[in-house]
Amino acid sequence: MAQSSAVKEHIIAVTTDLILQYDGDINRITARMIAGQADIALGLINYHFGSKEKLITECVQRIIGKVVSSFQMTQTFETDKERLRAWATSVFDFLYEHSAMSHISILEDLQNYTTRCNSVLTQRGFLFALKNDVADEDRAILAFTLLSAMQTAFLGNETVKLLLGYDFSRQEERAAYIKKLVDILFDGAEPL
Fold first, then answer.
1. Please, what is the angle between helix 171-188 and helix 136-155, to 10°?
2. E-strand spans in the chain?
3. Which one-letter DSSP state was computed for residue 189?
4. DSSP letter at 26?
5. Separation between Cα atoms, residue 84 and residue 86, nearest integer Å
């Protein structure tokens, strides 16, 4: 049993390295490449994970989870609104800078939405931005709504471009979208 677990973790480590090596371009990673790098039989990928896609998803979730867990904003802000806007802009930029991995992570979270998924961890991170200016009962819904709107916009960015006019390939348009979202959400939140 321990050997099987060690093999599985080795496959995950090798695949994670490949994902990072190819900057998240998972289309360039084949099962044969993984097996060769891990020095295992090709069939072990299916045995342990069911498919290359499930292996990739598990690795991406771990990569994104580490990023989410280690996120720290070093700037200081006078208001929660400024702080949340900056944090959300950083997260939104990350989605586009790592779009292949972000797409996989978001879709996996939507299919398996749990308190430990990356989406919920990100929402909890947003709660830390809300220190003073939002009533406790509004903080969680504000973070949830903000992240949901960000993820929907990311997954459907071409449709959002048609409907709302934002071109998310441009960083300044991503920042403008986040600013608008945060402004709308803060207008609806109860002040302390």
1. 150
2. none
3. S
4. G
5. 5
- 177 token code pair: 């979208």
How does pLDDT run across 18-56, given as a tens digit for each residue?
A: 998 988 888 899 999 999 999 999 999 999 999 999 999
From residue 108, alpha-carbon distances to 101, 147, 174 in Å are: 11, 15, 23
Tokens 């969680």 sit at which residue? 140
Number of residues that make up the chain: 192
Interatomic CA distance for residues 133 and 174, integer angstroms? 24
**Cβ partners under 8 Å of residue 69, min gap 6:** 121
Nearest CA-CA partner of 22 in 50, 58, 59, 49: 59
Kindly report, residue by residue over 103-157, the tens digit of the pLDDT. Answer: 999 999 999 999 989 999 999 989 988 988 888 889 999 999 999 999 999 999 9
Output the pTM of the full model.
0.83
Query: How high is the pLDDT of residue 68?
Result: 77
Q: How far apart are CA 160 and CA 130, in angstroms?
A: 27
What is the dihedral angle through the alpha carbons of 35, 109, 84, 100, rounded to the nearest 10 degrees?
40
